[in-house]
Amino acid sequence: MARDYDSQLLESVGVRRRRMRDALLFGVGRARRTADERLSTDLSNLDILVDAAKKGLNIQ
Questions:
Q1: What Cα–Cα distance (Å) separates residue 8 from each residue in 2, 3, 19, 22?
Q2: CA–CA distances in Å: residue 56 to residues 47, 48, 49, 51, 60
Q3: Residue 45: what pLDDT?
Q4: Separation between Cα atoms, residue 30 and residue 55, nearest integer Å
């Protein structure tokens, strides 16, 4: 029982430290920036896909 509590406590401390570090490094808008970065990546992938399709169909 004590061992389970200790491992749970250590894990929660690790999570708290990770969250504090992320807040310090990335600030309050971390989740928003992450979404913006994903959108940018998705648009880039779409652009590459369109270019590949144009080349495959010989469209200029």
A1: 10, 9, 17, 21
A2: 14, 12, 10, 9, 11
A3: 82
A4: 38
Cα–Cα distance between 12 and 17 in angstroms, integer?
9
pTM attached to this predicted model:
0.42
| Residue 38: C-alpha distances to residues 2, 5, 13, 32, 57 (Å) | 42, 37, 29, 10, 29
Mean pLDDT of 32-59: 77
CA torsion through residues 17, 18, 20, 24, sign: positive
Tally: H helices and E strands in the chain: 2, 0
DSSP 59: -
